[in-house]
Specification:
The structure is a homotetramer. By secondary structure, chain A is an alpha/beta fold. Chain A folds into 2 domains: about 1-35, no CATH class; about 40-215, Beta-carbonic Anhydrase, Chain A (3-Layer(aba) Sandwich). Helices cover about 45% and strands about 15% of the residues of chain A. In chain A, strands 2-1-3-4-5-6 form a 6-stranded mixed β-sheet, covered by helices on one side. Chain A is globular. Chains in contact: A-B, A-C, A-D, B-C, B-D, C-D. At the A-B interface, helix 1, helix 2, helix 3, strand 2 and helix 4 of A face helix 1, helix 2, strand 2, helix 3 and helix 5 of B.
Chain lengths: ~220, ~220, ~220, ~220
């Protein structure tokens, strides 16, 4: 904490520019958002990856999306054991406190976390199997997905695992009683997406058909 | 999973607009980022709150920031116990795999998570004390901060606790051996910010002085 | 060489200040840039003029822009004759070695080089026609632009020639086989700008429309 | 030219921020600079490298430095043959038209151009020997420097060649009659610097001593 340092100057400069333009132009709305609280229509769970900014892709307004970003956009199964579950806390807050109408899980291509999971599950990254590997233990959430794709030809496995990361998260979301109830009573809809960061395409999961299709 | 639904039309519409404009204008760069991988200069840990989008405030280019967003921008202490620690995984990935040069914790005013923590710690929200409350258990990370601010006059407590959320996260970051080492060898600098969502101001934590000052 | 002198004290003083502040705040990033090499997103070709600093206008981070500055931001046509072509070397390095995604030619108002070219082409500066005039021979690159603007009313000619300096450079860039290929395969986009140094405005060249428009 | 595209949005955003802050705060000075012309004290010749921005290192004000940036901060010998010599044109303009009082050649460590020259001269990059290589022909300016450092131990050669790039440019500057005259009559002083981009140090060439020393 005593090590905390001042911001690099170029960020201060840009912040000052933002304040003089974007902020100034939206002052009334920001002020209302501060006074009345947020009321986002949707929650988005996406990856920390610097190449995937959902606010850009969906032209999001301030106040529109409640956004959780973690490694590989994963949601663990419902486990109310009194331990810290940061992702589960975000889902609980979005569904019970904010009552969002949509919950969107957005995966992406070239995901480093998914590639790491594939390496771990196929025996090529023993260090990720250690208890001390936070990345490895986190990617355990995706391990059941590896079982489902390990018979595919090698070059298809990682892309298929990226899709599993979305499908497993959707499955796990339904293990949360409050998510299931909101979905079943029609208060919440779930959505699964895959964004290709190179060619910009977007696929969505078609639940009844059980596969991804272009939006 | 079978419940996954197609995207609302307004989002498809905006996505198509993004693809015809922003994507088209940046195609070459996105393609390079996909082929060569990301190389972000900084990791930002901020809140899921829909009113706080760090990419806007700092005019970020795609590829510049690796962003983790959770409830109240918290980092738990280092606990390599083999359990799932999603936030710790993001820090591990940013520092060890991406070797980011800056780690910025950005808190904000009017934080619902912090307000919940204050209610819980002051005995006004017994439900958050339940084992089954993911939010409560997550906000336990901030409990030591409550001890430090509970003697303040009532109206000052929540704003002070918002600052504690940043300071405790900075402290906890230093309990990760790989963070400490990167800081001590000069490969990483830590930064703590508080963004006021209503009036747009930005404070930064001045480590040696032990307090927040305007940028 | 034996005439080289120590730096004026005011520059040493400012350098020391930079080292104690900007450098210290960015040490980790500078160290990474030194170890891993640069990976700029864009090349900018602008004028040497002391009134035009592109890093300021665009809030550039260190490592973001590869910048060539010459008189009047000119690019000569592709001429692989074994002679020294400093500007062509910078374009070759940016496109083939660094694989930048954007190439921005930024002209500006009140350009001394363009004014000199106008004087030369309109017969008012015979000394610039001499073989020994490096400026005159360099400004020959812009001579075809003079042909296109010499019928305009006198006061419009120099501003029009400043725009020609950008347009001709864009045309000449497309005569480089490696630039053309990168553009045609979507790996590179070209941009033409005019910055008004007095009133701060910025125009961009709209290729399909064939004219400059405000950004 | 017809391929020219609009600027990426993040740059437009940052430009708008610059206009609302830096420009607005300096409007009077920018307006005077536009009306009265530039009057820079010094010319700086530095590299295009995105990691070396002399305006940052020396806290330059708008209007202070006339800056030429090329590959490896090289100046060719005086060759008034009627061909295009972009760098010589910048020197002519700075010394004869602007009458700058200082001419600073600033080299830097980890220079890609110098490394390429070393590879070429030591026989490891035959493609750079081709007539069609603009980079190779440009780096020929530094070839005499290779002769002077080729007996050094291998690891010392590239750093020594980076210094030669500065020394040879200073030598070549003195072959320009108008530079020599300005130096000899005391109207101009020459300076040679090496900036270490990783550790931020700055060395200057001590002419009488014939070596680089810390500033």
């Amino acid at each position: 904490m005593h090590n905390a340092r001042v911001l690099p100057h170029y960020l201060v400069s840009r912040y000052n520019g933002w304040r003089a333009t974007t902020f100034a132009e939206n002052r009334a709305w920001y002020s209302r958002l501060a006074d009345e609280g947020q009321r986002p229509r949707a929650m988005v769970i996406s990856c920390c990856d610097s190449r995937v900014h959902v606010t850009s892709i969906f032209g999001a307004d301030t106040g529109e999306f409640f956004i959780h970003r973690n490694i590989a956009n994963l949601v663990p199964p419902y486990t109310p054991d009194g331990n810290q579950h940061g992702t589960s806390a975000t889902v609980e807050y979005a569904v019970l406190a904010l009552k969002v109408a949509h919950l969107i899980v957005m995966g992406h291509t070239k995901c480093g976390g998914v590639a790491g999971c594939h390496a771990m599950c196929s025996g090529k990254a023993p260090d990720l199997e250690e208890d001390s590997s936070f990345i490895g233990r986190w990617m355990d959430i995706l391990r059941p997905g590896y079982e489902r794709i390990s018979d595919l030809p090698e070059p298809d496995q990682v892309p298929a695992l990226e899709r599993e990361a979305v499908m497993i998260s959707l499955e796990n979301l339904m293990t949360f009683p409050f998510v299931r109830e909101a979905v079943e009573t029609g208060h919440l809809t779930l959505h699964g997406l895959i964004h290709d960061i190179g060619d910009g395409t977007l696929l969505q999961f078609d639940g009844p058909a059980g596969r991804f299709v272009p939006v």
